[in-house]
Amino acid sequence: MKRLSFLYLALAYAFIFLPVAVLVVFSFQDGRLPVPPFQGVTLKWYEKVLSDEGLMTALGHSALVAFGSSGVALALGFLAAHGLARVALPGSLLMRGLLIAPMTVSYLIIGLGLLTVFNQAGIKPSLVATGIGHVVINLPLCFAICFAAMGDHQKSAERAARDLGASEVQVLWHISAPMLAPALAAAFFLSVTFSWDEFIIAFLLTRFEVTLPVEIWSMLRSGLSPATNAIGSLVFLVSALVVIVLETLMRRKA
What we know:
CATH architecture of the domain at 62-228: Orthogonal Bundle
CATH class of the domain at 62-228: Mainly Alpha
Strand content: under 5%
Number of helices: 12
CATH superfamily of the domain at 62-228: MetI-like
CATH topology of the domain at 62-228: MetI-like fold
């Protein structure tokens, strides 16, 4: 039975990581197409990608949108979670449901809805519009993580701080946020990961200032190339590093 379990686990990991391994291996292909047979090892495709001004600009756009929108989503999610967890409001259950609802909606529907609203409001497709879209999809995640992490011991510490004369801003900054630091870090890094890889909303809400996934899609329209494998490998590396940092923070909390 144990051998069967290990076999199942090995097959599951192979199913998940084999496409990624093939992507990475053929990013070093010394040929014009990332297909078998493997023709030797070269770094020229990575050199080409890193020297491509359009790709590097798109990379900067992705980083700006990912970190900016994640920071805004984290701040709004934390404040909403703190308010709904600490204050008994009429309809608080409905409010929590409405905040989490975007997690159940397709990104395509959200992107089309935002595109319609922005067109009516006269807001042109841009990185700002894309950032707003990413706040919409990441806010529910940040809210859910922060709300789940709030406990009675934090509530007692906040009450003690107020009794000692701390203002609400001081309580949030010096008591609530530090006690929720692992949850806040988890919410932020997950948001960065989702925003970094997101394509549909970025495609709909950008025009000239495109993000990296949109630029990769433009490259794929002209056919397969080891260069696309190289940029895909770099994107995977960044996403994996973010997840590793997140996992490390969560283990330290445990």
